[in-house]
Amino acid sequence: MAPCPEDQGHLTRTVISERYYLADALFLVVLEGEVNMLDRVAAAVRSPHWPLSFGRKAYVPARPLLEPGEGPEAQPAEEILKRHRWLGEGPQPTEPLRTVVECSPGMAGAEVRYDQPVSFSANDRRFAARAVRIGEVVLTSEGARQCS
Predict the structure, then answer these.
(1) 101 and 51 in one domain?
(2) Are residues 45 and 114 in the same domain?
(3) Which domain of life is it from (predicted)?
(4) Do 84 and 56 share a structural domain?
């Protein structure tokens, strides 16, 4: 706890902590699932009930999360990742990008991560296991179809 000027140097319940943020970070999220669910997600992203932000209200997206005319496609997520173009500004990196794709636990190369939220309760935060496969995709050329 830290002293607060208004409290004449007495300790208060203010907790000072360090935070780390990614500035100018760029992420691509590809969802795979039933078409009806993906349509609902796309509609919610296009017209959210609450303003969209990344963790805090001050961290709003710099561009649309889903470009006009974009939406669900009848292709596996990994296929979309393989043909997706580089979204960043500046030169396209020459090295492949790392991917983390959920998979069945029995799949070859599956790794277990204990990060699937089960409870968000402040007194009882719990996580379950999920299987992921770590891979790489080679970035496609500038002429490839753009999506977000």
Answers:
(1) no
(2) no
(3) Bacteria
(4) no
The amino acid present at 26, given as its one-letter code, is L
Boundary (domain end) residue, out of 41, 73, 105:
73
State pTM to two decimals: 0.61
Rg (CA), the chain: 20
Which are the contacts of 83, defined by CB distance < 8 A and separation ≥ 6? 140, 144, 145
Taking the C-alpha atoms of residue 65 and residue 104, their distance in angstroms, rounded to an integer, is 28
What is the tens place of the pLDDT at every residue in 102-146? 999 999 999 999 999 999 888 999 999 999 999 988 876 544 444
112 forms bridges with which residues in the sheet? Answer: 131
SS3 60: coil
Who's near 112: CB < 8 A, 6+ residues apart? 105, 129, 130, 131
Q: Which of 73, 103, 135 is the last residue of a domain?
A: 73
In this structure, the answer to whether residues 148 and 79 fall within a common structural domain is: yes
Query: Which contiguous run of DSSP H or E holds residue 130?
Result: strand 126-137
pLDDT at position 5, please?
58
Q: What is the mean pLDDT of the chain?
A: 81
Mark whether 62 and 86 lie in a shared domain: no
Q: How far is CA 108 from CA 41, 65, 87, in A?
A: 30, 32, 30
